[in-house]
Design a protein that fits this description.
- This protein is of the alpha+beta class and 158 residues long.
- The chain has two domains: 66 residues, 2-Layer Sandwich (Ribosomal protein L11, N-terminal domain); 85 residues, Ribosomal protein L11/L12, C-terminal domain (Arc Repressor Mutant, subunit A, Orthogonal Bundle).
- 38% of the residues lie in helices and 18% in strands.
- It has six helices and five strands.
- It has a three-stranded antiparallel β-sheet with strand order 1-2-3, with helices on one face. The protein has a two-stranded parallel ribbon with strand order 4-5.
Length: 158
């Protein structure tokens, strides 16, 4: 079994048969569009962001496997908050705000990289990132929101 591994940085949901993938896949004699469509399906939720992918292709059978890396949690939080960077002094100055729904969306994107046992715990991890960035959640201090999640105030969000 001969395999080729291709690593590339692509725009989420916008891979194409052009560079960087096309020229790499062309010589392998595989169905390029099938691979590109599969990559776009897997990276669609990262639209507008650069996403690292690792593509392993079996050059004999044409089978392939796609591993999608994810942008750092902090980058996803910044994008949700619509800001360039976090606060230089998170204790005294707030850089932005995200909703509990947006924190949950980031947790879903980072699902495989977070340690929590369930979506609620993983969302709390994302909110923990907000603490150090000076970003509020639902206009509240992130630690307060984590406590409210523990107390069940946000159960309807999950």
């Amino acid at each position: 079994m001969a395999t080729e591994t291709i690593e590339a940085l692509i725009d989420g949901g916008e891979a194409s048969a052009g560079p960087p993938l096309g020229p790499e896949l062309g010589p392998l004699g595989v169905d390029i569009m099938k691979i590109v469509n599969a990559i776009n399906e897997k990276t669609g939720k990262f639209e507008g962001m650069k996403v690292p992918i690792k593509l392993t292709v079996d050059t004999e059978s044409g089978d392939f496997e796609i591993e999608v890396g994810t942008p750092p949690t902090s980058a996803l939080v910044l994008e949700k908050a619509g800001i360039e960077k976090g606060s230089g002094n998170p204790k005294t100055s707030k850089a932005g705000n995200i909703t509990i729904k947006q924190a949950k969306e980031v947790a879903e994107m980072k699902e495989d990289d977070l340690l929590g046992k369930n979506l609620k715990q993983k969302t709390k991890e994302v909110i923990g990132t907000c603490v150090s960035m000076g970003i509020t959640v639902d206009e509240k201090e992130p630690r307060e929101v984590q406590k409210l999640i523990d107390e069940g105030d946000y159960d309807s969000a999950f």
